[in-house]
Design brief:
The complex is a heterotrimer of chains A (about 230), B (about 240) and C (about 400).
Chain A (H helix, E strand, L loop, with lengths): L43 H5 L2 H12 L2 E7 L2 H10 L10 E2 L10 E5 L7 H10 L5 E5 L1 H5 L21 E3 L6 H17 L2 H4 L26 H6 L2
Parallel strand pairs in A: 1-2, 1-3, 3-4, 4-5
Helix pairs in contact in A: 2-6, 3-6
Chain B lengths: L17 H4 L22 H15 L21 E4 L9 H5 L5 E10 L9 E12 L8 H5 L5 E4 L13 E2 L1 H7 L17 H29 L15
Antiparallel strand pairs in B: 1-4, 2-3, 3-5
Chain C lengths: L25 H4 L5 E5 L11 E7 L2 E8 L7 H5 L4 H8 L7 H16 L5 H29 L4 H21 L8 E2 L2 E2 L7 H14 L2 H7 L3 H7 L7 H7 L4 H5 L6 H4 L22 H27 L19 E9 L2 E9 L7 E5 L1 H7 L1 H4 L5 H10 L4 H5 L1
Antiparallel strand pairs in C: 1-2, 2-3, 4-5, 6-7, 7-8
Helix pairs in contact in C: 3-4, 4-5, 5-6, 5-13, 5-16, 6-7, 7-13
Classes of the chains: A alpha/beta (about 230), B alpha+beta (about 240), C alpha+beta (about 400).
Chain lengths: ~230, ~240, ~400
């Protein structure tokens, strides 16, 4: 394994790039969910582009999502079902023929992410070109799902890569994936790249979430933290 | 081997490598004789494939137009869990039996003033929070099965993908909203046993009818001979 | 060694001095150095996250080592923290294509420990659902195996049939893949009115289209050329590695638990049940076994429907105590899953959770034979052999 085992420093660090060279690949760090994202940069042209251009760009991005299927478990079968004749997500402009991550815009993580698999997912995500989107398909990749208390399962793919849309279900039906794709397309239509890649560094506090209230003492303990505090 | 008609994967040169593989390459050794294209004219396989293509082209498309047309889902379809809050007694059975422990319930006890002067004050549980984390839920339906007061139901709705995982934790207002989408349960197979709800209702109705009949008989008897005791069990509570 | 898709080459043991030459004698002197090629863990041909470390001499595979564990979810440990109702929900997920058969093993084991009688209607309906599940599973592989060999069409047909069967399964159980319809002592609830008729229609419709696989796939020159005499698995290896299911039967090992140690209603279906065997043991034989078994499962489903139509009305489950505890002891239940023998070794200490539940999954044993099967073949045949072992990664890694 040539992945560096050092725990990565967390947070989106924009502007001055603290990492020179390749981004260190780390094991999922529960202290920094969604952290260790490579620093994103945007040229001045894209930042200053007039609105109509952005609309056209977004429109183009929305309806040509070359999709890289990270099929891991049960949900992958439903993903395949969604790509077959009955549901056919090519109608929505999702093209499942990306030859590899380097040619893909959208990664659909469907299935249980294990700690052994996590470095590979992160590596392949980082091979994707910007702008890139991730759909987390199914309970396992949302938060570990039925296996959340297992010793070998990553509690959600959003601990290692940022996720744009979460599709619930175990496994979700193919129509649910289509709805997730529609949701993502809505998001892409309204996005503005300069907002997504701010020039100034984002303070660490902006990435933090307030703590969730604890569950009732007589309910099953400790699952609120695992399940929802992402 | 006839010339391969299409430019797709070929037989990858088995014959050249027989020496490498060391396997016995006895072609046609005893395989059940669904004679493929090996006997026909060259390109027969291609023709057959194209015939299937043409035949399929004339058929109606099987594609569902999902965002425009909603799928017709069976009533048992496990899409989302709805909560009928009024029925919930905060017994915590669902939260305890959930294999993922993804149901969060908060409650407090409330003391009701005594209904009658010499009765004890009663306490009851009041629901403060009922939430299901659908990012964790494994859609097994145990909570619905164990609920003794029919407060939880399956709804076939599936359109609740979110961009923020916290939104997938549906609080009780949202769970109550799903209640409007719950379909009636399907009728059971004729060979099935009567569902226990219907059986219980039937028992109650029979009991009531019997009580009514008894009351009428007793009233008739009372008219004949005044001063007898009133009929027993005038009002039976339905179980 | 790298993780992910890239390949790395290490100087192998067989490094020879490379002499470049032209002519008849040159080829023998043209030495090659070994290369280690990682297939997977994320690779289209592994349909899942299986990794295979190949040592190559040119195009020839000299050694192969399946590296498992990328999908290990620790289900056995999780079983110990869940009660018998909750285990059923988790047990169906290791082999996600045969969820019903997985549940079945758990409930049969618990019922045996409790000495529980299951109603007749439940037994027959379980048999029916198990066979439908077998068809669903086989259809997936009947579609995906040609896909791996370069034929895209069959998988569309396979999923068309799968959707029809999944529709009836969903109508009964509410789930398209994870039915969670088994309970200790029977099934979750009774079936909707008219369901049996719709199953019959679905089975008939699927059967009417099975000629796609009989003729279009099996009759295809390219398909036959790429599978015949490729990856021949000897019966001795089958026994040595504990290979089971259609793969073992394609090598002439005539073993099927439905006939040899019958459970459910299989004893009464002996005249319909046909154990499909082949003697060749190559990829084509494995595919033929799978296909014929799918045909037979459709027949079995029809036979179950016939029997169910004649059964007396009755319950489909038994009332259970509030807290279900298996008595102290242990039992081993094995069932003929679509992919092979699936066993649960259940040890109970009288609690409401098992003390230990060991899972014997079919694919784990089936995949180990790759280390013997792949050396001596070519890289291009690797895809054909790998696909013909019909495995589910979750079933390997548990």
């Amino acid at each position: 394994m040539d992945v560096t085992p050092t725990p990565h420093s967390h947070g989106h660090s924009h502007g001055q790039d603290p990492f020179a060279g390749p981004v260190p690949l780390g094991m999922p760090d529960p202290a920094a969910p969604g952290g260790a994202v490579e620093p994103r940069r945007l040229g001045p042209l894209a930042r200053l582009a007039p609105d109509p251009v952005k609309v056209v760009l977004n429109w183009g991005r929305r309806y040509s999502l070359w999709c890289f299927n990270f099929g891991l478990a049960c949900c992958a079968i439903e993903f395949i079902a969604a790509s077959m004749a009955k549901h056919d997500f090519i109608r929505l402009g999702v093209i499942p023929f990306a030859p590899g991550p380097r040619q893909a815009d959208l990664m659909i993580v469907s299935g249980t992410v294990t700690d052994k698999m996590a470095p590979a997912i992160k590596r392949l995500y980082e091979q994707m070109p910007e702008p890139k989107y991730v759909i987390s398909f199914g309970a396992c990749s949302n938060s570990g799902g039925p296996y959340w208390d297992s010793y070998s399962v990553t509690k959600g793919v959003d601990q290692i890569i940022p996720v744009d849309v979460y599709v619930p279900g175990c496994p979700p039906r193919p129509e649910a994936l289509l709805q997730g794709i529609l949701k993502l397309q809505e998001k892409i239509a309204h996005e503005s790249l300069p907002d997504q890649y701010p020039a100034a560094p984002v303070p660490a506090a902006a990435l933090k979430r307030p703590l969730l209230p604890a569950p009732a003492p007589d309910a099953a303990p400790a699952d609120a933290e695992e399940g929802t505090a992402q | 081997m006839p010339p391969l008609p299409s430019g797709s994967v070929g037989p990858t040169g088995h014959t050249e490598h027989t020496g490498h593989t060391g396997q016995s390459h006895q072609r046609g050794s005893g395989h059940s004789g669904r004679s493929g294209g090996s006997g026909g004219f060259p390109g027969r396989g291609l023709a057959k494939g194209l015939a299937v293509t043409l035949r399929t082209m004339t058929r109606r498309s099987v594609t569902d137009q999902y965002p425009d047309a909603q799928p017709e889902l069976p009533p048992r379809s496990r899409g989302v869990i709805a909560l009928l809050e009024e029925n919930c007694t905060v017994c915590m059975l669902c939260a305890r039996e959930c294999p993922d422990w993804c149901i969060y319930i908060d409650s407090h006890k409330e003391t009701l003033p005594a209904a009658e002067p010499n009765a004890r004050a009663r306490t009851r549980n009041v629901l403060d929070r009922f939430a299901i984390d659908f990012s964790l839920c494994m859609y097994c339906g145990i909570c619905i099965e164990v609920c003794p007061f029919d407060a939880l139901f399956w709804s076939p709705e599936f359109e609740y993908a979110e961009t923020d995982i916290l939104e997938l934790t549906h609080e009780r207002e949202k769970l109550r909203e799903w209640m409007w989408t719950v379909p009636p349960p399907p009728a059971l197979d004729p060979a099935a046993e009567e569902p226990k709800e219907i059986a219980a209702a039937r028992k109650a109705a029979d009991k009531l009818a019997a009580a009514d009949a008894a009351a009428e008989a007793a009233a008739a008897a009372a008219q004949e001979s005044a001063g007898t005791t009133p009929p027993p069990g005038g009002e039976e509570p339905a179980p | 060694m790298t993780t992910g898709t890239p390949t790395s080459s290490t100087p192998g043991s067989g490094t020879r001095e490379t002499t470049v030459g032209i002519g008849a004698g040159a080829a023998t002197e043209l030495g090659t150095s070994d290369m280690v090629l990682n297939i997977g863990p994320q690779h289209p041909s592994t349909h899942g996250v299986l990794r295979i470390k190949l040592r190559l001499d040119g195009e020839l595979i000299t050694a192969a080592e399946p590296v498992v564990g990328y999908m290990h979810r620790g289900a056995e440990k999780l079983f110990e923290a869940r009660d018998y109702r909750q285990i059923v929900m988790l047990a169906n997920r290791h082999d996600w294509l045969s969820a019903f058969a997985n549940e079945l093993g758990v409930v049969l084991g618990v019922e045996r420990m409790l000495g529980m009688e299951v109603p007749v209607r439940a037994t027959w309906t379980r048999t029916l659902l198990a066979e439908l599940n077998r068809v669903l599973n086989h259809l997936m592989f009947l579609g995906s195996y040609p896909l791996e060999l370069g034929g895209i069409t069959p998988v569309f047909h396979a999923f068309h049939e799968r959707e029809q069967l999944q529709a009836v399964m969903e109508e009964a159980s509410g789930g398209r893949m994870h039915y969670m319809f088994n309970r200790v002592g029977g099934l979750k609830e009774d079936l909707p009115a008219g369901w049996y008729g719709r199953v019959r229609a679905a089975v008939a419709s699927v059967r009417s289209r099975m000629d796609v696989f009989d003729d279009l796939v099996l009759g295809n020159d390219i398909f036959r050329a790429r599978t015949r005499d490729v990856g021949v698995l000897a019966a001795a290896l089958v026994h040595a590695y504990g290979v089971s299911g259609p793969i073992a039967r394609a090598s002439g090992v005539d073993f099927d638990l439905r006939r040899d140690e019958p459970y459910l209603a299989y004893p009464e279906l002996a005249d319909v049940l046909k154990v499909v065997t082949r003697q060749e043991g190559d990829c084509l034989a494995r595919f033929e076994c799978l296909l014929e078994q799918a045909h037979n499962s459709l027949d079995l489903a029809d036979a179950c429907l016939d029997r169910l139509a004649g059964l007396e009305p009755g319950p489909i489950n038994t009332r259970l105590p509030k807290v279900l505890k298996a008595p102290e002891g242990h039992t081993y239940t094995w069932t003929e899953n679509p992919l092979g023998v699936n066993g649960y070794y259940l040890v109970s200490r009288g609690d409401k959770t098992p003390w230990r539940m060991k899972l014997r999954s079919a694919s784990y044993n089936n995949i180990q034979v790759l280390g013997e099967l792949l050396p001596g073949t070519l890289v291009a045949d690797m895809v054909a052999i790998l696909g013909s072992l019909f495995f589910v990664v979750g079933d390997i890694d548990k």
